């Protein structure tokens, strides 16, 4: 075990990479995933902005998802990579609070945004004649703004608490970012009440949205089942399967991590699960939405042709 200076107020992040060849391999892999996520999400945002065929509520919400994923992975990976390269695992008390705030905000915003996207598909397929009214530009803006406000308030409450509790001399966080539950384990005071609020918060922002998403897609699948058009069924099933794939990748590890009692959790397992929702999901989302979506592929072709014609 490495010896760390405990007189500093800084925290020590043990990180994800072991000091070995395996650690170097994982570092290179994570950096490549980060670059893929960066390129993929930026491309999705630009594509939706440039192609007028994608100026619809569904793609407006998708562009926001890409924006969130872009910030999500950028909040964690650059610091983690920098620590590995420089051999410095410390993060300042304030820096840890800032990272925790942004992570918690983005986690809640993405959960609420995925719920909004499920509602959008439900209205589009089950109530197509009401779609333009129920999913107007104003409604979309309110959904996104509300998600950011709720996420920020929730994150602010958690961050203020973890920055004001007394910590023991050992400030070694067994994680690769400043995750609130991992920080609370270092507290030199009884935190069972706060851990209850974390559970309540996870229930409100993970379980309830997941129930809403399940109900929306349950309604959608029922409506699709009664469709007479084979082509319409195929398109609806493809759209829904894409959304459900993204939801599963994001929610499953999150729910499993945050709704378990501390006694059943292990730092190693938490870190492995965190890789899914902090690193892999931001990389996979643009791939899933582009490769399985004919409209996105069509828009990519149109924009590419337009760029080529301008160059010529």
UniProtKB/TrEMBL annotation:
Q: What is its subcellular localisation?
A: Cell membrane
Q: What is its main location?
A: membrane
> Membrane topology type, per the record?
Multi-pass membrane protein
State the superkingdom: Eukaryota
GO biological process per UniProt: detection of chemical stimulus involved in sensory perception of smell
Q: Which UniProt keywords apply?
A: Cell membrane, G-protein coupled receptor, Membrane, Olfaction, Receptor, Sensory transduction, Transducer, Transmembrane, Transmembrane helix
For this record, the Gene Ontology CC terms, alphabetical, are:
plasma membrane
State if Cell membrane is listed as a keyword. Answer: yes
Q: Which residues form the G-protein coupled receptors family 1 profile domain?
A: 40-289
Q: Where are the transmembrane segments?
A: 22-50, 57-77, 97-119, 139-161, 199-224, 236-252, 272-291
Under Gene3D superfamilies, the record lists: Rhodopsin 7-helix transmembrane proteins
Asked if the Swiss-Prot or TrEMBL record annotates the protein with the keyword Cell membrane, the reply is: yes
CDD domains xrefs: 7tmA_OR2T-like
- One matching Pfam family is 7tm_4
Q: Which GO terms describe its molecular function?
A: G protein-coupled receptor activity; olfactory receptor activity
- What does the sequence similarity comment in the record state about its family? Belongs to the G-protein coupled receptor 1 family.
> Its biological function?
Odorant receptor.
**Protein name per Swiss-Prot or TrEMBL:** Olfactory receptor
**Source species, please?**
Pan troglodytes (Chimpanzee)
């Amino acid at each position: 075990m490495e010896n760390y200076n405990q007189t500093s107020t800084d925290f020590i992040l043990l990180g994800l990479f072991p000091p070995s060849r395996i650690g170097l391999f994982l570092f290179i892999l994570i950096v490549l995933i980060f670059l893929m996520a960066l390129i993929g999400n930026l491309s999705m945002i630009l594509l939706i902005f440039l192609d007028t065929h994608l100026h619809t509520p569904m793609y407006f919400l998708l562009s926001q998802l890409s924006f969130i994923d872009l910030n999500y992975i950028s909040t964690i990976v650059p610091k983690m990579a920098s620590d590995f390269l420089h051999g410095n695992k410390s993060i300042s008390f304030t820096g840890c609070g800032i990272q925790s705030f942004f992570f918690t905000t983005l986690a809640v915003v993405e959960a609420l945004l995925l719920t909004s996207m499920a509602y959008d598909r439900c209205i589009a397929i089950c109530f197509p004649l009401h779609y333009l009214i129920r999913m107007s530009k104003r409604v979309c803006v309110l959904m996104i703004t509300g998600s950011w406000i709720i996420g920020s308030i929730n994150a602010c409450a958690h961050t203020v608490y973890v920055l004001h509790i007394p910590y023991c001399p050992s400030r070694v966080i067994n994680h690769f970012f400043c995750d609130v539950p991992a920080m609370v384990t270092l507290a030199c005071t009884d935190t069972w009440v706060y851990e209850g609020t974390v559970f309540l918060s996870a229930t409100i922002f993970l379980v309830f949205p997941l129930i809403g998403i399940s109900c929306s897609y349950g309604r959608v699948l029922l409506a699709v089942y009664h469709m007479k058009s084979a082509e319409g069924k195929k398109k609806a099933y493809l759209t829904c399967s894409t959304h459900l794939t993204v939801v599963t990748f994001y929610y499953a590890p999150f729910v499993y991590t945050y709704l378990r009692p501390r006694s059943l959790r292990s730092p190693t397992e938490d870190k492995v699960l965190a890789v899914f929702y902090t690193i892999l999901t931001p990389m996979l989302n643009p791939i899933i939405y582009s490769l399985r979506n004919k409209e996105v592929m069509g828009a990519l072709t149109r924009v590419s042709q337009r760029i080529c014609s301008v160059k010529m």
